[in-house]
C-alpha cells in the first residue's frame, strides 16, 4: 500500500503572503522558442544508417556541396559517424545580440548515441521563420550505452544532448518596454479574489487608480506620470499579497498520491471502510500405486483450500463543515490506506458532502 501524501495546512495558521512576481508574469517579459535542423558529426559508429535515414544522407550531401565538394553521389555515402538532429532553445526575454544561450540536441534518425559528437553550424528560427540564433559546438551527453554480442546496457538517454552556451543570439526581439504607458500583469492561476488583492496593494503603493483588475487573470497597471516602466515593475513585483485558491482535492490513481487543499470542507457524513478477503491456496499431491499392483500409475491430485475472511468495519462520523485536519484524523481512525482513501473521497463527492473540486489525474 502506497503512502498517502497530504498537503496539510491547519486552519488556525495564517497563510503566508507571497510576492507578485512569484504568482504572476509581466507583459512582454517572456521567452521565445527556437528550433533548427542540424548535423552532429564525429560519432564513433553510432550515427544514423544512411539507408534508413535518407534525410541524413541528403543533409550531408548538401553540406559537402556548400563546402566545395561537388558532383557527389549521395547513394555512395555509407558513413556511420553522422546523425541528423533537431536543435531547440529558448530565447530569454530582452536577450541582446551576441548573448549566449543553451541548446538541446535530439536525435532525429536511428542513431544510438550522440556521445563524442560535435554539432555543426545550425540556424535557430522562431515561430515567424526568422533566424534569431546560431548554434554550434561539442555536445554533452548524460547517458551512455554499452553492448556486446549477447547483451547491452543503456543508462539514461544517449540520443539527447546539451550544449551549454552553445548558441549566440544574432537577432533581437523588437519590443521596447520603456515606450509603454501601461502594462499588464498575468496571473498564473486565475482568481478574482487574488486579482482584486493585487489591485489593492498596487493602488496603495502607486496611488489610487494606478491598477485595475480586468478579469480574474489580468491586472492592468498605468505608469504614473512620466515614470520609468522598469522602475515601476521593480517596485510592484516585490509587493506581497495573500493569494486565494479554489478548494480542490487532486488524486493520482496511478501512484496513490492524494493532495488535499486547506480550503476543503466536508459536510456531516458517516464513513465505513471494510472488505472481504478471499485466499486461495493450491497444492498438488502425488498418489502412488501400491507396490504389488498391476498396471497402476502415479496420479497427480490437486488440492485446493479456500479461506474467506471478512473484516469488521467501524463507522467514523465527521461532523458538519469539518476542516482538513478533522478529515485526516477521521480517515486515520479507521486505518485506511491510499487506495481506500481515494474510494472514500470519490464516494463523499458523489454524496454531495465534499465541498471542493475532485480532480483525478
Map the helices and strands.
Elements: E1 18-19, H1 20-23, E2 24-26, E3 32-41, H2 54-66, E4 83-91, E5 100-107, E6 118-125, E7 131-138, E8 140-141, E9 144-147, E10 152-155, E11 160-169, E12 182-187, H3 192-206, E13 211-215, E14 218-222, H4 229-237, E15 240-241, E16 248-252, E17 257-260, E18 265-266, E19 269-272, E20 276-287, E21 299-310, E22 315-318, H5 324-333, H6 338-351, E23 354-355, E24 357-360
The general outline is: flat
User: How many β-strand stretches?
Assistant: 24
State the end-to-end CA separation: 19 Å
Number of helices: 6
Q: Which whole number gives the mean pLDDT?
A: 80
The residue ranges in which pLDDT falls below 50 over 5 or more consecutive positions are 1-14
Strand order of the largest sheet: 3-4-5-11-7-6
What structural class do the secondary elements suggest?
A: alpha+beta
Nearest-angstrom radius of gyration? 33 Å
Describe the main β-sheet briefly: 6 strands, antiparallel, barrel
The secondary-structure element order is: EHEEHEEEEEEEEEHEEHEEEEEEEEHHEE
User: How many domains make up the 3D coordinates?
Assistant: 3
Proportion in β-strands:
35-45%
Q: Level of helix content?
A: 10-25%
Amino acid at each position: 500500500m502506497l503512502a498517502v501524501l497530504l498537503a496539510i495546512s491547519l486552519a488556525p495558521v495564517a497563510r503566508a503572503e507571497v510576492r507578485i512576481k512569484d504568482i504572476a508574469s509581466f507583459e512582454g517579459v517572456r521567452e521565445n522558442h527556437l528550433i533548427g535542423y542540424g548535423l552532429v558529426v564525429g560519432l564513433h559508429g553510432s550515427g544514423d544508417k544512411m539507408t534508413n535515414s535518407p534525410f541524413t544522407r541528403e543533409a550531408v550531401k548538401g553540406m559537402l556541396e556548400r563546402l566545395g565538394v561537388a558532383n557527389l553521389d549521395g547513394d555512395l555515402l555509407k558513413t556511420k559517424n553522422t546523425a541528423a538532429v533537431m536543435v531547440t532553445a529558448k530565447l530569454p526575454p530582452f536577450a541582446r545580440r551576441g548573448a549566449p544561450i543553451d541548446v538541446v540536441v535530439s536525435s532525429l534518425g536511428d542513431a544510438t548515441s550522440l556521445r563524442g559528437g560535435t554539432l555543426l553550424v545550425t540556424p535557430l528560427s522562431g515561430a515567424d521563420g526568422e533566424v534569431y540564433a546560431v548554434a554550434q559546438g561539442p555536445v554533452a551527453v548524460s547517458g551512455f550505452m554499452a553492448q556486446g554480442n549477447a547483451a547491452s546496457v543503456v543508462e539514461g538517454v544517449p540520443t539527447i544532448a546539451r550544449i551549454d552556451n552553445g548558441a549566440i543570439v544574432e537577432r533581437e526581439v523588437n519590443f521596447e518596454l520603456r515606450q509603454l504607458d501601461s502594462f499588464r500583469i498575468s496571473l498564473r492561476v486565475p482568481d478574482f479574489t487574488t486579482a482584486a488583492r493585487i489591485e489593492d496593494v498596487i493602488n496603495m503603493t502607486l496611488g489610487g487608480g494606478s491598477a485595475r483588475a480586468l478579469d480574474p487573470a489580468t491586472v492592468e497597471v498605468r505608469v504614473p506620470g512620466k515614470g520609468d516602466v522598469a522602475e515601476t515593475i521593480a517596485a510592484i513585483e516585490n509587493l506581497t499579497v495573500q493569494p486565494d485558491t479554489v478548494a480542490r482535492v487532486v488524486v493520482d490513481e496511478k501512484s496513490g498520491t492524494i493532495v488535499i487543499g486547506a480550503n476543503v470542507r466536508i459536510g456531516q457524513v458517516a464513513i465505513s471502510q471494510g472488505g472481504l478477503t478471499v485466499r486461495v491456496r493450491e497444492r498438488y499431491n502425488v498418489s502412488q500405486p501400491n507396490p504389488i499392483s498391476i498396471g497402476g500409475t502415479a496420479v497427480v491430485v490437486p488440492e485446493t483450500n479456500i479461506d474467506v475472511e471478512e473484516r469488521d468495519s467501524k463507522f467514523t462520523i465527521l461532523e458538519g463543515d469539518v476542516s482538513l485536519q478533522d478529515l485526516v484524523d477521521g480517515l486515520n481512525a479507521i486505518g485506511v490506506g491510499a487506495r481506500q482513501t481515494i474510494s472514500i473521497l470519490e464516494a463523499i463527492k458523489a454524496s454531495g458532502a465534499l465541498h471542493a473540486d475532485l480532480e483525478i489525474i
